[in-house]
Design a protein that fits this description.
By secondary structure, this protein is an alpha/beta fold. Helix content is 46%, strand content 18%. Strands 1-4-7-10-13-16-19-22 form an eight-stranded parallel beta sheet, with no helix packed on it. An eight-stranded parallel beta sheet has the order 2-5-8-11-14-17-20-23, with no helix packed on it.
């Protein structure tokens, strides 16, 4: 999840708690202060991490990260371009991914990687060779824009003017529809409780259902984030689960057992205390990514079992896989008698999926490398026939 979460959160955490000289001695990157300008015809091969604005008129053969400032690329950036709270404008060329947390993204030049926005709009009038993902912001393609990959939005709209070229598919998920559906379910549940009994117990049961729906809706959002913003990483996590299920299970179990002792070790170290929030965030990101991959594999096995064709898009596969697990929890709280068993099965499936997903996230290094391919089993050597003794000579 390096494009948004790790560069920004790691920089914020380490810069806030670790002195700059100690950080530099440990080989880390120091946050630069003030505006940074890379002049035309100049080249820089080191990462730029600044709390001000960054303008690249020349060549930056590394990553560009701005904490709250604007990033403008008029030249060439070969690494990732990321901002937190500031706008991104690509007038030149970016050879890798472009992402923004809370700021708008404008592509008037060329982006060879993916474009991801969390909370800000995306305006494209140039060329994007990868995918475009937006959470909470609109995506607009003006006339003359060219997008080779897919466009995914959640809580935003996709606008395409005449003359814009889009060669991929569009996946739009409106969170308002889910919210209205949950409100309708809550209203029906309240009406049903009033018919059954006017006592306080009915109101408490309804409140419990609404709280459960809220938790499940939050889970939907968390699981959709990797599929929307990091489809390649989610696919690799699913490939790791398919390739060696028990390997992922074992690694995930070891991570789960060793995580809290590792937190205790960080607590006794002055330099380790600031790393605790980052470790917790990394665990949550890995679990969300891995559980998304597990959901993909789960829905594949389900549709293979019923001999039906499942959804084609990755986003739809994650939603269906999560719905299979969450549905057991929902019906378990509605159906009498066997409801407790169903809820327990659904909870165990989610917990087990998170453990398997942790192992898959570790195997693929958070989806940054393909899943390891297990070595084929070697056939056992054929048994040699026993040697026959020569007949006795007369």
């Amino acid at each position: 999840m390096k494009r948004i979460v790790l560069p920004v959160l790691a920089a914020l955490t380490l810069a806030a708690y670790v002195p700059a000289d100690a950080h530099a001695r440990r080989g880390g990157k120091v946050v630069l202060h003030g505006d940074i300008v890379i002049e035309k015809d100049s080249r820089r091969a080191e990462d730029v991490l600044t709390d001000g604005s960054l303008r690249v008129d020349g060549t930056l053969a590394a990553d560009a990260v701005s904490l709250g400032g604007a990033v403008t690329v008029n030249g060439l950036v070969t690494g990732d371009v990321s901002t937190m709270g500031g706008p991104v404008t690509i007038n030149g060329r970016a050879d890798d991914d472009v992402s923004s947390f809370g700021g708008p993204i404008t592509v008037a030049g060329e982006v060879a990687g993916d474009v991801s926005s969390l909370g800000g709009p995306v305006l494209v009038s140039g060329h994007v060779e990868g995918d475009i993902s937006s959470l909470g912001g609109n995506v607009k393609l003006t006339s003359g824009a060219v997008v080779d990959g897919d466009i995914s939005t959640m809580g935003g709209l996709v606008e395409k003017e005449d003359g814009a070229v889009h060669r991929g598919s569009v996946t739009s998920f409106d969170a308002r529809d889910v919210r209205r559906a949950l409100l309708d379910v809550g209203r029906v549940a309240r009406q049903g409780e009033k018919r059954l009994s006017p006592l306080l117990a009915g109101g408490l049961a309804t409140a419990g259902l609404i709280f459960l729906f809220s938790l499940l809706f939050t889970g939907v959002i968390l699981l959709l984030l990797p599929a929307v913003f990091f489809p390649l990483h989610t696919g690799r996590a699913a490939d790791a689960v398919r390739a060696d299920f028990w390997r992922s299970t074992g690694i995930g179990a070891l991570i789960t057992v060793a995580f809290f002792p590792a937190m205790l070790m960080l607590l006794v170290s002055i330099l380790g205390i600031p790393l605790i929030p980052l470790a917790l965030l990394l665990l949550v990101c890995a679990a969300a990514l891995g559980l998304s991959g597990f959901s993909v594999v789960l829905q594949e096995r389900f549709f293979e079992g019923i001999k039906r064709k499942g959804p084609a898009s990755l986003l739809g596969q994650v939603v269906v896989g999560y719905a299979l697990m969450a549905g057991l929890l929902i019906f378990g709280n509605i159906i009498p008698l066997i409801g407790g068993v169903l809820s327990f099965i659904g909870f165990m499936m989610m917990a087990f999926g998170a453990v398997v997903g942790l192992g898959a996230a570790w195997d693929t290094r958070m989806g940054n490398r393909p899943a390891p391919v297990p070595e084929p089993a070697r056939p056992a050597p054929a048994a040699q026939p026993p040697a026959q003794e020569p007949p006795p000579q007369s």
